[in-house]
Write a structure and sequence with these properties.
This protein has 218 residues and is an alpha+beta fold. It has one domain. The chain is built from 3 helices and 11 strands; from the N terminus they run βββαβββββββααβ. The strands form 2 sheets. It has a 9-stranded antiparallel beta sheet with strand order 1-10-9-8-7-6-5-4-11, with helices on both faces. The protein is globular. The N terminus and C terminus are likely disordered.
Length: 218
């Protein structure tokens, strides 16, 4: 796994392994949930402050939302070429990547399970291959389910970070400085390195190349 990825995550064995033949399920991206913690307020060029109160309707977030929904639609309808790896190197993990017709990565998923938690990281890119949104969903043995979301502008600047505790007492998560480094990740390289020695899963013709989305950015 790329060295800039966030910390070492211990994963939840008790969740069980997802069947290898299952079609692609996108995480449900929740927009209304309690206990939000954000990065420091950011101002755009027009001076409008991006804050906890306005982030969902802020023009920069709305623009990124369109990119994410476009990425999801491209995977769902088979417009993008997808690759899928299942790894069982002591702990179970699943890697999926989608490229558009120009070979630009538009979506990358790195999911893993282990001893006391699981983590599902989803990276969304614009048509220039720039990272624009990351959704990290953690499930922990203590009953916690929480999401971290990070939004990036065209220059790679982290403009907003939100943390939502959906269930349970909470679990450790990435630091803002670590989130900022995510723009340095090369998804193609990460997929190739993390997927070495893993089983390739061929897409099913049943769901437009094995793709079935269950959630979008609302």
């Amino acid at each position: 796994m790329n060295t800039i990825r966030i910390a070492t995550w211990f994963f939840l064995l008790s969740m069980g392994v997802i069947p290898a033949t299952k079609a692609i399920d996108f995480p449900v991206i929740v927009t209304v949930a309690p206990q939000l913690q954000s990065s420091e307020d950011q101002s755009d060029n027009a001076g409008e402050v991006l804050s906890d109160k306005n982030w969902q309707k802020h023009p920069k977030i709305v623009a990124i939302r369109r990119i994410v929904n476009s990425d999801i639609a491209g995977v769902r309808n088979g417009a993008f070429k997808t690759e899928h790896r299942i790894c069982d190197k002591g702990w179970f993990s699943r890697l999926r990547i989608a490229r558009d017709s120009k070979g630009v990565v538009r979506w990358y998923q790195n999911y893993g399970e282990g001893e006391d938690s699981s983590r599902d990281d989803n990276y969304y890119f614009d048509d220039a291959g720039r990272l624009r949104f990351v959704l990290m969903t953690t499930y922990a043995a203590n009953g916690t389910r929480e999401q971290h979301r990070a939004y990036f502008d065209e220059s790679g600047l982290l403009i907003y970070h939100g943390r939502r505790l959906l269930k349970g007492p909470g679990y450790f998560g990435p630091q803002v400085d670590d989130l900022k480094k995510l723009v340095q990740m090369d998804p193609k390289k990460d997929f190739a390195e993390s997927g070495q020695g893993c089983k390739e899963i061929k897409p099913s013709a049943k769901h437009h190349g094995g793709v079935r989305a269950t959630g979008g950015l609302q």
